[in-house]
Amino acid sequence: MKALCYQGERDIRFEDFADPALASETDVIVKMDLCGICGSDLHIYHGQGFSPEHGFCVGHEAIGTIEDIGKDVHRFKKGDEVMISAAAGCGRCPACLAGEIVKCHTSSFACFGLGPSLQGCQAEGIRVPMGDFNLRPIPEGLSADQALMLTDNLPTAHLACQRADIEPGSDVAVVGLGPIGLMAVEIANVMGAARVFALDLVPERRAIAETLGAIPIDPSNAQDAIFEATKGRMLNSVVECVGADATLSMAIKLAGVRGTISAIGVNQSMDFQFPMAAALARGLTFRIALCSVQSHWDELIPLVRAGRLHPERFISHRMSLSEGAEAYRLFDAKEDGAMKMVLSS
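and the corresponding structure tokens:
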């Protein structure tokens, strides 16, 4: 088969790759129909990946059609159209059964495409371990695009908002308006935020947030603008969706007394200086987490189906898998209005 493979810094190649095969009777082989490039994939693209290896298949967002199943798979059959959770768990331990695959008791938690241990989804075929648990049929009434956004982006935005302690009537900021940040703006509105301040360096992204009802703010004067808008109280909740030292620092500055910062941007810096004294003085809550995607589906699917959330609206480019290298380049450079990149097989 063909797949997108990491071969070094800014070197993603469309090349021949071994066909996926059942490694366990609980495995499922899925033919990829659509896959997405996530902002966290850029860490790998920049050579700051999660594995020192080269040559592995990347990506962790995909939907597709089941081609083969192990004999211990009972919830699916060949030909079923499914969405794949970006991360997999064992599906059997108490933590997984409670929806917290990041706490998997068997240490089976793994994200697709971070290294050779679980090959990625930006490929013509994908092996999904514990298919009964890590797959879900594409829900009736949802488009393929909406299903793809449910494999990672929308659940991650939902987790960020949940952990930001957003309450009806509260003031919220979203820092970083990539696809997940814009989805967080929508979710904060659904959760009852009175005002959502939307920060990004890219004016076009701020303009999109404004169409969602947010108040767009240039990061260069965000602290003063929000101080004035809140009469010095600053914010109840701040959602950080970038993972850079500068955006984390900004998020902390925007939180008011007893405010909460929820960070879901992937930050690999070992040098970030957390302002402990300021956090203590203001009684801040700081949370950072990875998403257990499966635990969010039951709450999000009805909201998408009812038209309360529209994650598909942030897709900017549709390209073929063979154009993956150019898709990564465009996405990284933010050229041509690049937002959510969707690839087809």
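(Above: one complete record from the training split.) DSSP finds twelve helices and 17 strands in the chain.
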